[in-house]
């Protein structure tokens, strides 16, 4: 199904309609903000509807364009391909889920419409980050994705969220400078900022200088991805900020960070041994995240560290960019499954905001079987148990890494998966145990309705996605080659 | 047909999970009816298969699933999987009957067991590695909840140990599967296609791929040294959970050896055969000796499982060992191994159901707490004695047929495996000793007031024992199904 208007756009010049999904996000942010400022506090739901409508429109536009042939627009500065289309869809769905699960928290508060505008702007930044194939646009997208994120993390003005926002800001500023420095170095060496010419021009440049530039850019992108060395902000943001900010910060920015890294690495010449660098980062990230999650007692902080370990798995296909045919599909399938799984788990945590220890979930299965089932699906999906969504991601990611020559990374990731099962079970096991009278609020599980509903809906989505993703993938990417 | 066999219990489980108002009695009836339907369906498939006289894959179904990585929803049965499908249906029916009086959350329990049944059926029917892995993992998840939810004693810890251990196995398996996938050209996860391609023949990487798969299956089977999860899991699981765990879930590992490891990597299997045989022999002897030292009856039966599953590993290892032996002898060993899977499922399933009676009446499995139990509970003593004799390999029961073929085939290829023969003697000794301690002598401890077997307990455990005796007396139909498939495995391996 081709979107008829898109087909008319030329292949290299301006093509505003090819950016329709991005335009919807921007327009939605502006309209939600302005509408919100004219509405009384009880009727801010209008701006929520606007935000959801903008995301739905963006997703629909992305879905229409999904079978379009790959191409670049604006003189090669922006790539529209299966990766960008998938990123647009994942970002839109994830952002909509974030808004849904945050409704209980935000409804009727003084900064409701501002939050929606920030979510849409940060989503826009993420999508542009995912689609860009030009260093300068990359720098702009990094800022567009980061600045609303700092605000989102700190917006509920508690002490812990202020601390988390400050930490995120400082780390983001530091690694953002690294990114700008890297962009400058690469531009200086190549004389161009467009990826397509970057590869040719850097081939003759000194390898060490290219490595310095690349390291700088990667540092910034690892901040977005929440991977080593830019991971320090993730657990604090997950634990300290409001539910909406935490769920968004641990999910959506990653999508842009990983795809941007993939695109840049795909353009680089072979004079720098970046695959090994990324593979080592992946190994460090997954191991560190898992070991740190081991002893956490707050479900939100546990999820924060778990997202760090997931970032490690997500770096595996990035490490084999260009070496394995599965690299890009593996990355996108994993991102899609991970985003919904992580949000489902956050939604269960958010449905019971008063229960901030793992043992406080004792008796959940007896009192709220649907929520316990949603938690089970979400956590098993994060482990990678079939037929949930992340399984296909794990399978393809493992395969891609091995295919690209990093069999040791595949083995390490398998070992890490077993470690991760242990701490996910630390949350799951109490939920299925009968509540003891000593448990705080034992047996009585009043749930936040929107968050709980989102959790159940997301869990269903995970199962449906897990079973049908293979067929959907075949539709998007065409039949297998060979 | 095979899809129906998988989806029927799954649909029943989903129905039970959703209908929260359903009374317990109705839930039990649904479980029992679904289990009966499964027995009928699998028996019909078996009948149809043996009528057709085919020895290749039958009842095949294939749908597109994940085409971009060469994985499809591919089902099919042959002589290796059919007996296990029927075994699964029979064991679950026995559990449905045994749990007829169970009061504890009967609806969720029935739903969980039906879910488990679906995963077991799916695994034995799967002809695609990813599909196999899916059911393998889901069976672990289901069993975890059975132990953690309905077990006793230190059940949370045992369930966690079970989950972590077998999950380790499943990930090793996944790594091995990925290796098989990457070696094939075009890339595929389809089992028959991979077997036909045999892409890793002569490739040293095949050894590592097989090692990963062996570790995965060895944890599940389990063999020494990967068996340590089994005794606590069995001790703390409910009786019917133990019967399913021993009767069906352990077979997943053993079945994986004949379905995946041997046919897909015959070359590496031959290279690894000495290790596999050694592990099998050690499991046989070590399992028997440790079982001899147990005072907890259920733990003792659990260790005899290690011993019995060791025979399977030993036979399959011997079947692949180097040497100029006729392939008919090797096929005998494979036939013996598959027969042993069925036999062990029936007999140990019955033993675990009977052991559960101790926990139900007296709250302990400690053999020292009983004595002279034959006085107040003569029927119990009789049933247990029959099960014990069947388990130690008395002629007339399935165990004898299986172990005879295992040794006839294995010793024919590798004479040295005769060192495992004392395992049979030790097993006989430990069962006789257990019978003596619990059922004879003066009444003591918890024996007083011990209620004899109820009809549902007799029907469930007795039914399994009758089937074991049927196989023992009339082995023809079972062997006639397995033997052609075993021949095919040996022929395909081109040793």
How would you explain this protein's 3D organization?
The complex is a heterodimer of chains A (482) and B (495). Chain A is mainly alpha-helical and 482 residues long. Chain A has a domain at 276-482. Chain A is 73% helix and 1% strand. Chain A has 21 helices and two strands. Chain A has helices at 4-7, 20-38, 45-64, 82-101, 103-106, 112-131, 135-154, 159-190, 195-202, 207-225, 233-240, 243-249, 252-267, 274-293, 299-319, 327-351, 364-367, 369-383, 389-403, 407-431, 449-477; strands at residues 71-73, 78-80. In chain A, strands 1-2 form a two-stranded antiparallel sheet. In chain A, β1 (71-73) and β2 form a beta hairpin. Mean pLDDT of chain A is 92; it is low at 1-11. Chain B is mostly helical. Chain B has one domain (2-493). The model of chain B has no long low-confidence stretch (mean pLDDT 94). The A-B interface holds A 326, 329, 369, 380, 385-387, 391-392, 395-396, 398-399, 402-403, 410-411, 414-415, 417-418, 421-422, 425, 429, 432-433, 469-471, 473-474, 477, 479-480, 482 and B 20, 64-71, 130, 133-134, 137-138, 141, 145, 148-149, 156, 159-160, 163-164, 167-168, 171-172, 174-175, 178-179, 181-182, 185-187.
